[in-house]
Amino acid sequence: MDMDMVDLVDIEDMEVIELLQTPRVNNRNRLRRNPFVELSDEDFKQKYRFNKRYAMKIINLIREDLTRDPRGCSVSPEIQVVCALRSWARHEIQDDTADLHGLSQPFISQTCKKVADAIAQISHRFIKMPATLTEQEEAMQKFRRIANFPTVIGAIDCTHIRIKKLNVDGGHLYINRKGFPSLNIQVACDAECKIMDIVTRWRGSVHDSRIFRESRLKQRFEAGAFSGILLGDSGYACTPYLFTPVLNPTTPQEERYNTAHIRTRNVVERCFGLWKQRFRCLLRGQYCNIETARKTIVACAVLHNIALDMKEDVFNTEPNSHQFNLQTSEPLVQPIENNVRGNIRRRQFIERHF
To answer: What is the role of the protein in this entry (predicted)?
Structure first.
């Protein structure tokens, strides 16, 4: 071996040794601060869109689920919950939430999934129809104060939540009539915009009327579980327990009925608006897998109801928020199906009350 070759080998060996001895550069600040201690109430709400009392309420509800980690997660339940709240409420890039808390983006993604799953598991405690006769009468009184429309216990409609495009068999079935992939979410709410029932399993191409027709809620109404009625738009069939507008009113009574119906049913539109303003991940779309998206939607419904109970204001300082479409799915000109019993019941109702 000549001298030039020996010199080349020595240089390569020295470069390898230097590389091994070079300390790894920490490109992320891993210092984790406690926002409950270090931030004022105002700064906390600015960063997380909710106040400390609300955040602690959520933490205490699911603390046990977040500490039951077989891998020995070193991140406290407090940090996990506020990271999820920030990610859902602001819908910012997960890297930004990660940098703020000294964590990694994959950890934030897994944390949001875990928090959504924990909250979804307790959804039955916060999302429920009025069960007792007293609760139903109270719900009807609140609706009647809106436009003097009697016996209403809920307003129902569907809204589309955008999801990522699915490149799998059947992925085209998630494309809605507006041309983007979505989940069609059915919600029934009370007069105070609280979500009482939610269905998240249907693809964007499925019509509102089918979702209700195959829902557990419809079965409960048919079984006589409720003494009141639902109000829906003309995309639904008129039934004895779900009243829709009169398509071509011909009498003053029918005109008054339609006016009161529109004002009273509008509460579900306001519910969707508030819900999506609180959680902009619903306004701008879910880009995780389908199952996680469904659980996140349910979790946001639970959080919305808790926020209403705690009288938590909607935090809205983002510019150009009016550019986002808050409207629900558009009703068809005519109902999908004709229900003679429903039309007769509605006509009798109009003659009696309007």
So the answer is: Transposase-derived protein that may have nuclease activity. Does not have transposase activity.
